[in-house]
Design a protein that fits this description.
globular; two-stranded parallel ribbon; Rossmann fold; 9 helices; 10 strands; single chain; alpha/beta; eight-stranded mixed β-sheet
């Protein structure tokens, strides 16, 4: 094994939640401490995430039942296999030759009806951990084209059995959020791509019309809702006009094109929740 790689198992002591298995832009692990007091009175409900991303919130809250959705089908395929107790047998090395070989194999699977296989899930994990900045990017022809990433050390995992028990009651899907079968009493936590200039997370993009569509859809939900976004003036106005209660939170800024690490201001918007329980460590707007 080279000095820049190490293998690890995800077998953990009982009661210890497994960490998010992937690197994912805009990770929301920091939100769990704000969401936990809001979620606890509703822990008997099903948690629904229309934009689950790196799954850090769901793994932090640990619901018994969940519906986790993301527009990225390769991410969801990985989670589907994670739920089955995924074990990796591919080469896990921080090496450019191995990386580009695995990348080519992954792209071959995408064009030969192999995108939903366990091999595709394993390769997706490896490419995520080894590629530049954990990006998931495809060109106009649908080819995964993220270059090799340079890291001092990568902690690869090959045994994901620890996730099997946690994810047992969770369902995964990859579709537009408005097509989700959400029950009236579900607890919905939504963290859409933020209202910023660069929103090209998927080839379809996520523009202002999608922000309005998301907020309007959630405003119609009769059950508890938490909606999080960048606290831009138009986002605050949109959410307030739809009847959400708003709370201002200072969020860590981890990725910025200018190198700025100043905490970003985010808005937590609530509906159908006890205001006293919802306003936690933040400033009401």
């Amino acid at each position: 094994m080279s000095p820049v790689e190490e293998k690890q198992s995800t077998r953990l002591p009982a009661g210890v939640p497994p960490a998010p298995p992937l690197k994912w832009a805009g990770g929301k692990r920091w939100q769990v401490r704000y969401l936990q007091p809001v979620w606890q009175p509703h822990a008997h409900r099903r948690l629904v995430e229309p934009f689950c991303g790196g799954m850090s919130v769901a793994l932090g809250l640990r619901p018994q039942r969940a519906l986790l959705n993301d527009i990225n089908p390769h991410l969801i395929n990985f989670y589907d296999w994670l739920k089955r107790g995924l074990r990796l047998t591919i080469r896990l090395e921080h090496d450019p030759v191995v990386y580009y070989s695995h990348r080519a194999r992954f792209n071959t699977l995408l064009t030969t009806n192999g995108a939903r296989t366990s091999e595709a899930a394993a390769l997706f994990y490896y490419l995520n951990k080894t590629g530049y900045n954990g990006l998931c990017r495809f060109n106009s022809r649908g080819v995964f084209n993220v270059p090799f990433g340079k890291y001092k050390r990568i902690a690869y995992a090959s045994d994901f059995l620890a996730y099997k028990g946690v994810l047992g009651g969770w369902e995964f899907s990859s579709r537009d959020f408005e097509r989700l079968a959400v029950a009236a009493d579900d607890f919905v936590y939504a963290d859409p791509p933020y209202d910023v200039q660069f929103t090209k997370y998927a080839k379809e993009g996520f523009g202002w019309d999608d922000q309005v569509r998301t907020a309007t859809w959630l405003a119609r939900h009769p059950g508890p809702v938490v909606l999080v976004n960048q606290a831009t003036p138009r986002i605050r106005a949109l959410y307030a006009d739809l009847g959400f209660r708003l709370q201002r939170i200072r969020a860590p800024r981890r990725i910025n094109c200018t190198g700025d690490r100043t905490p970003a201001e985010e808005v937590f918007a609530y509906r159908n929740l006890d205001p006293a329980g919802a306003m936690v460590n933040g400033e009401e707007i």
